[in-house]
Amino acid sequence: MALDNATVLENLRQQKAEIEQQIDGGREMYLKIVGAIDVLEQIEASKEQEVVAEAEAETEVGVE
User: Which end of the chain, N or C, is less packed with Cβ atoms under 10 Å?
Assistant: First the structure.
């Protein structure tokens, strides 16, 4: 059973639209993940700075 060009063309257009939606969804998820990584990296960096500041403060108190 052979398909005519119009049927094949319509099928390809539908596949293209579905793939474009998947790409957009994947891009959106990627951006959310990148944002979450950025926020968590900032939180971790802030924690490290607090630990260093506390250690320096303790050292200064011990030196006096």
Answer: N
